[in-house]
Design brief:
By secondary structure, this protein is an all-alpha fold. The protein is built from 24 helices and no strands. This is Armadillo repeat-containing domain-containing protein.
Length: about 375
């Protein structure tokens, strides 16, 4: 009987490590362990071998999906390596690099690192490429990064960027046009947005272009929705934006869209009406478009659905925006008379009593008070 030592020796000889029967290809990308993995993947992204680069981009995307590994990759210098690949001659490699960047910029640290290494001009340049795959990947990366103030500010400050995006809205297919509009809306939401609004209104001439998109019934629904949201943002603080919107004929179109079947489109149109109705010129246009009876009918239709209303829902947003438009219109004498004739005060008071929404209650209370004035406060009635 063999001793334990002899049996152990036979076992080691039988199961000892042997050369792999198939030789590993020269362009194989194998994972490293622990801290060695991050430096290795960066080196592979900068390899002279195109196949290794392509495989490394896929591996990098998997690593960047995990928050802890994302930080380690950024520390190892993966961002400049990916930005360099955006300028690669191969379109498939450009698309893969942009898709991987989307995972990188999902965090604010990654977004700032991408901007620091000059990724934004490269991405904007790729939007001029004919390849649909490249443009889809670039829009995905930009929209992911646009959740952060750093990207919005950089996009606003980048020379000609907003004008370029507005041009893509008119030229691209519906999906990418809607994404370009989403990016422009993000630009208007920066903390100090005066420059962004001024550039879009006066340099890019955005209002007439958006008016054309909204007025065209053949415009795809996502594009029309994005254009309405951007128009509302442009009119939020800029009187020039409101004036241009009235002159472009936006008022009757927005009034029509408030009654749209799509809840999102109706909310966006109501928000735009709220903004444009701050202008005296728009109040006249709304009166001429017979806006008051139409808005009262929309409020009456919403009254029967108050039991299903949820806080923060599109229905709540729609009602609040229409009530705010009513408040703005009540400043115009003829519109105020129409509100009284249409029974707006009683309807609004019923809304106030039936709803549990504090936002609707507050807006309804103000609207009822404004609609009840015989003459505007501070204005003497004619004898």
């Amino acid at each position: 009987m063999a001793s334990g030592f002899e049996a152990n020796s036979k076992h080691l000889a039988r199961f000892a490590a042997k050369p792999y029967p198939q030789q590993q290809p020269s362009d194989a990308v194998t994972p490293a362990f622990e801290g060695y993995a991050y430096g290795k993947i960066v080196g592979q992204l900068r390899s002279d071998n195109a196949v290794i680069k392509a495989k490394a981009v896929v591996a990098a995307k998997e690593m960047l999906c995990m928050p802890l590994k994302r930080i380690q990759c950024i520390s190892a210098g993966i961002t400049p390596a990916l930005v360099e690949l955006l300028g690669a001659p191969d379109e498939s490699l450009q698309a893969s690099a942009a898709t991987t960047l989307q995972s990188l910029v999902a965090s604010e640290v990654g977004c700032r690192d991408m901007l620091q290494h000059g990724g934004l001009p490269q991405l904007l340049q790729l939007l001029k490429q004919p390849s649909a795959a490249v443009k889809d990947a670039v829009y995905g990366a930009l929209c992911a990064a646009a959740h952060f103030e750093a990207l919005r500010t950089a996009l606003m400050q980048e020379q000609g960027a907003m004008r370029q995006l507005l041009g893509h809205v008119q030229q691209e297919e519906a999906g990418r046009a809607a994404q370009a509009l989403e990016l422009l809306v993000h630009c208007t939401q920066v903390r100090h947005n005066h420059d962004a609004l001024t550039k879009l209104i006066h340099l890019a001439h955005a209002v007439p272009k958006l008016a054309a998109l909204i007025s065209n019934s053949n415009t795809p629904e996502p594009v029309r929705l994005g254009a309405t949201r951007l128009l509302a943002a442009l009119m939020s603080t800029q009187e020039d934006g409101r004036t241009q919107a009235v002159e472009a004929g936006c008022v009757p179109v927005l009034l029509q869209l408030v009654t749209a079947a799509c809840a999102g489109q109706a909310c966006a149109a109501a928000a735009a009406l709220t903004m444009v109705s701050l202008s005296k010129q728009a109040k006249v246009a709304l009166h001429e478009a017979d806006a008051v009876p139409q808005l009262v009918r929309v409020l009456a239709a919403q009254q029967g659905q108050l039991e299903q209303l949820k806080p923060g829902s599109q229905q709540e947003e729609l009602i609040v925006n229409i009530l705010q438009t009513v408040i703005n219109l009540a400043e115009h004498p003829q519109c105020r008379t129409q509100l009284q004739q249409a029974g707006a005060k009683e309807l609004v008071q019923d809304l106030q009593q039936q709803t549990s929404s504090s936002l609707i209650c507050k807006a309804a209370e103000t609207a009822a008070r404004m609609a009840s004035f015989a003459t505007w406060p501070g204005v003497c009635a004619k004898p």
